[in-house]
Amino acid sequence: MRGKTAEDLGLLELLDPVAEAAGYEIVRLRLMAGKEQRRLQVMAETPEGEMNVEGCTRLSRAFSEVLDAADPISGEYVLEVSSPGIDRPLTRLKDFEAYEGLEARLELDRLAEGRKRFKGLLAGVEGTDVAIDLEGEDHTALIPFAWIVEAKLMLTDDLMKRGAAQRAQRLQSEPQQTSE
């Protein structure tokens, strides 16, 4: 899920060690077609789930060095490094644990319970299955992580409150700058 195509997966193999060396994890990588040129979109964060503008710049420079030397992408492309954002994609099993209790949409590569799309509250992880309390149903569904092709948090009041609380906590823990 972190990469969709064989080309994405090859780029992940190349760039994962670069991200890790810089103290980041790649959440998702997509090489997308465009009208003029392709776009390599990389979403990344620290193991604690943080990313700022300086981190994006640092990671972009590190990726550019490796991509320029290895030249794995034919033709022109634009590199875009960003945070996963508040309504982030869920691409790793640990994401489903970290965001337990929040609303998400899942899309599968096959039918399960007669459908491919699910929406509900994340209820954690059991082994390699994602638990989700489905909207309008009384039971918790267990979906094999390997079946999920796309998953994303839904922008809700609960997610916004959680994001605001995390931002306030980060600001509180940062050293205060004084102006003279």
Structure description:
This protein has helices spanning 6-21, 53-70, 93-98, 157-173, and strands at residues 25-32, 38-45, 77-82, 103-112, 115-126, 129-134, 140-144, 148-153. It is of the alpha+beta class. Strands 7-6-5-4-8 form a five-stranded antiparallel β-sheet. It has a three-stranded mixed β-sheet with strand order 1-2-3. It is globular. The model has no long low-confidence stretch (mean pLDDT 92).
Draw up the topology in text.
Elements lengths: L5 H16 L3 E8 L5 E8 L7 H18 L6 E6 L10 H6 L4 E10 L2 E12 L2 E6 L5 E5 L3 E6 L3 H17 L7
Parallel strand pairs: 2-3
Antiparallel strand pairs: 1-2, 4-5, 4-8, 5-6, 6-7
**Spatial order of the strands in the main sheet?**
7-6-5-4-8
> Span from first to last CA?
49 Å
Largest pleated sheet = 5 strands, antiparallel
- Poorly predicted ranges: none
**How would you state the average pLDDT, rounded?**
92
What is the H/E order?
HEEHEHEEEEEH
What percent of residues adopt helix (DSSP H or I)? 25-40%
Shape label: globular
Quantity of strands, as a count: 8
Number of helices: 4
Radius of gyration: 18 Å
Secondary-structure content class: alpha+beta
State the assembly state of the protein chains: single chain
Proportion of residues in extended strands: 25-35%
